Amino acid sequence: MSQDDDLDLFQQMMGDVTPIKNDTAEHQKKHKVTDAHIARREAAIWLSEQDPEYLSLDNAPMVRPEDVIEYKRDGVQEGVFRKLRLGKYPIQARLDLHRKSLQEARDEIVKFLKQCLRMDIRTVIIVHGKGERSNPPALMKSYTASWLSQIKDVMCVHSAQQFHGGTGAVYVLLRKSAEKKAENRERHQKRMG
Question: Residue 161: helix, strand or coil by DSSP?
Answer without folding.
Answer: coil
